[in-house]
Amino acid sequence: MERILVVGVTGAGKSTLARTLSRRLDLPYHEMDAVYFTGPDWAVNEKLTEDVSRVTAEPLWIVDSLGYPEVRDLLWGRADTVIWLDYAKRVIMPRILRRSLRRTVTREVLFGGNRETWADWLSKEHPAWWAWSQHATRRREIDRRTRDPRFAPLSTLRFGHPDDTAAWVASL
């Protein structure tokens, strides 16, 4: 495990696990949303492919994302391990709601200096709405990729519950 993708739906705990593994395995951690969103009003990185290519050309890294469409194949093609947090909606939704509520109330600064706002909760792009509406689609996409012959060399670890993930991390 030297080039790791931590994948799953929004709210699964990808970033938390990636940070933990980064410390434990001494791997450089790259938060995909911080690479993707680079400015106010959720501005998107115009050099995303170049930046992700540079990160994944390194021998050691961990990224917390399935990958945005323009870099998805690049990430999957250069990883050696995929850790899939395949959690049910009943696990994901309370997590994402708590996180978004905390971020909104505290005005936590996020990627590119952005913040979640009360108005954002009405948007289909809000993390809570996104997690709910994209749960099945994301699971299918990740499942398809783990079976894709192009990515057959990848070692895939699939965890169905946070307790399973925690037990695995504790065993490292």
Overview of this protein structure:
The protein is an alpha/beta fold. The protein is 48% helix and 15% strand. It contains 7 helices and 7 strands. Strands 2-5-1-6-7 form a 5-stranded parallel beta sheet, sandwiched between helices. The chain has a two-stranded antiparallel sheet with strand order 3-4. A hairpin with a 3-residue loop joins strand 3 (37-39) and strand 4. Helix 5 (89-106) crosses helix 6 (127-147). The radius of gyration is 16 Å and the shape is globular. The termini are close together.
Helix content: 40-55%
Structural class designation: alpha/beta
Number of helices: 7
Major pleated sheet: 5 strands, parallel
Order of helices and strands: EHEHEEHEHEHHEH
Distance between the termini: 11 Å
Widest beta sheet: strand line-up: 2-5-1-6-7
Mean pLDDT: 94
**E-strand count:** 7
List the helices and strands and how they pair.
Layout (H helix, E strand, L loop, with lengths): L2 E6 L5 H12 L3 E2 L1 H5 E3 L3 E2 L3 H9 L4 E3 L8 H7 L2 E5 L3 H18 L20 H21 L7 E5 L2 H10 L1
Parallel strand pairs: 1-5, 1-6, 2-5, 6-7
Antiparallel strand pairs: 3-4
Helix pairs in contact: 5-6
Features:
alpha/beta, 7 strands, two-stranded antiparallel ribbon, 5-stranded parallel β-sheet, 7 helices, 172 residues, globular
